[in-house]
Each structure stands twice: as structure tokens, then as C-alpha cells.
Amino acid sequence: MASRPASLAALVGVVLIGMTGFGVFLPIFPFLALELDAAPTAITIAMGAYSFGQLIASPLWGRLSDRVGRKPILIIGLIGGVLSYLWLARAESIVDLGAARLFGGLMAGNVGAAFAAAADLADDRTRARNMGLLGAAVGFGFIAGPALGAFLIGEAPTRADFANVCLASAALAALAALVALIAFRETH
């Protein structure tokens, strides 16, 4: 029982860092696509590819996390995010952007696994608190991430600046995976 608070703190940290990385990149995506001469319709489809991938893969990740545990799914999902952001940093076309976003969505099992782990760490009295803490981490990540992305991109971004934002997202996802590996104790 003594490991529950430490595991919950690690889980909140993993979600906060991971969602900050997600938020860093998200607002610059349309501008990166415009930099690659993409049409507005293609940009919208490429952006939606992430959600489509998540729709397909989330139930599979959930079942797998029930079978093999939450920690491996957290780490695999975050590493998938790293690969997706690295792919985005090197994208040369809207097709590359869409494919990278689709891959990122297919690998996005870490958020569901985090919420499942928070439920595993809870009893009837602490379930709402645990879910609230993770929800707050998600929300704060979506506040801090775009602010950090705006700071990194600057006033007159070049293609290299867009790549640097993608690399920052990759670094944050890698940091979250490392925190999950070292500090989070399996709950399943």
C-alpha cells in the first residue's frame, strides 16, 4: 500500500509531461502543413488522422493493458509518440504528416492505460480524486504545451523551427517514458 501514493505521483507526472509534449506540437501543426504547401482540406484530414488511429487502437490497447499490465502499455505508447514526433520533424509532405499523425494515434494507448492505472490505485474513496488528478494533469499539459510551443517556434518560424518543436515534443514523450520506466510501479 505504501507504493500507491508514489505510483500515483509518478503517473500524474507521466501524464503531465506526455500531454505537455502533445500540446507543444498541436497548435503548430497547421502552420507546418502550410509550410509544406498543403491545402486546407488535406491539413484537416491529416490532423484528424490521429483521432482516427486512436479510435481504432484504443480498445486494443485497453484489452492488452488488462492482459500484460499498465506499465508496458504506458511505455510503448510514449515511445510510439517519440517515433511519431521524430517522423513529423522530418516530414516532407502532407502525406508524411498524415501518416505520422495516424501512427501517433495508433500508438496512443498510454492515456487509457494511465486512467486504468489510476483506477487500479484507487479504492472507493479515492477513485474520483485519482481521476481528477489525471484530468488536471491532462488539462495543465494542454495549457503549458502550447505556451512552450509558441515560445519555441518564435515570431517568424523557419522549417528548422518547426522541426525543433517536433523534437521538443519527442524529448518530452521520451522523458515521460523514462519516468514511467523508473518511477511507476505496475498496478495490474
Q: What is the number of strand segments?
A: 0
- The span between the termini is 14 Å
> How would the global form be characterised?
globular
Structural class: mainly alpha
Q: What can be said about the biggest beta sheet?
A: none
- Number of DSSP helical runs: 8
Question: Which terms summarize this structure?
Answer:
single chain; 188 residues; mainly alpha; 8 helices
Explain the layout of strands and helices.
Elements: H1 3-25, H2 29-35, H3 40-68, H4 70-89, H5 94-106, H6 110-120, H7 127-153, H8 159-183
Helix pairs in contact: 1-6, 1-7, 1-8, 2-3, 3-4, 3-5, 3-6, 4-5, 4-6, 4-8, 6-7
Short description:
This protein has 188 residues and is mainly alpha-helical. It has helices at residues 3-25, 29-35, 40-68, 70-89, 94-106, 110-120, 127-153, 159-183.
Give a description of the structure.
The protein is mainly α and about 190 residues long. About 80% of the residues lie in helices and about 0% in strands. It has helices at about 5-25, 30-35, 40-70, 70-90, 95-105, 110-120, 125-155, 160-185. The protein starts with a helix and ends in a 5-residue tail after the last helix.
